[in-house]
Amino acid sequence: MNTILRLISLAVFIFLAPKPVMAQTIYSQNFTSGLGGWVPSSTTAIVVNSTSPSGTYTTPFTASGGNNLSLGACGGSSEQTATSPAISTVGQTSIMVGFGRRKTTAFALPIAFEFSVDGGTNWTTISSDISGPTSATWGASVFNLPTAAENQASLTFRFRYTPPSGAACTTAFRIDDFTVTATTALPVEFAFFKGAAERNGNQLTWETVWERKASHFVIERSADAKEFGDIGQVTAVGHTVGRQLYTFTDGEALAGTSYYRLRQVDHDGTTQPSKLISVSRAAEQVVVCDNPTSGHEIRLKAATIDPARLQLLTVTGQLLSFQLIRQSETDWLLRPAIPLKPGLYLLRFGQTNQQRTIKLVVQ
């Protein structure tokens, strides 16, 4: 499926005005050591040699001279292709591709320039003919690619043409200094970040669309959305183009509203904040129905009680064992393992950072 993209004006082939700003280079090939991973359909028609070394262009990349890739007009009437190795653009945006080019005066074949993101099953046309505006003098061509080329594990380019029968291999179109650049994006793209109040604390969930050199996530919490403190850390997958789901439970959630944000940390220390979310939960309320009470059982009233956060203690701080029985939606029965002797006891409940204590009098 070929879709012609009119990405830059014809004038760019000749004058490069205005000069495009090339960002970080993520791939470069000047054919000094041969094909360098490029795959020709014919090793007779498509070769690397030092005939007509590149020169004259210096922007946005500099001509390297020496070897270049020659696409010869020989090979009969069979389609010829020169295909690049796969290039990763994971975590990259604003993809640009450029190269030096020249042709012999007799070369009159159209050459399509295309890219693929699925291993070569489908190709998208960047230019239907890069040969037409090219002269016998070296110059440079630069293309801005569409967003479909961004964040891809395998971006591949190819030059494609069909020579006539009987043409000479020395009649050729040449390329050199094939360069791919991009604007480096932040290590992670968040799909969502949300939270919900659960019985065991506030459950935080987030998903990443992709990750690139991500190290970990720091979970931050605030009671006023102004002053934040770290409450935990989750290790990132690190490098992936697939979605990843993460969870974290704030087991010491504040009563009322808690504000959360993530601080994503890259391996080189770069950080990226997430959006701010809030989670609200009602304060845990427990009422002792009879106080003074019996030493055999204590009746409580509460909408919810977390048994793991309920303590029965002596005034000296000794923990006492008990059984907690739910009798109805709001009625609970606390039964000490050993009947309590008359005196003063403490009933403690709630999160560690906001515990409440009720004094119990046993008659």
UniProtKB/TrEMBL annotation:
The keyword Zinc-finger does not apply. InterPro entries: Ig-like_fold (IPR013783), Secre_tail (IPR026444). This is T9SS C-terminal target domain-containing protein. Keywords: Signal. Residues 1-23 form the signal peptide.
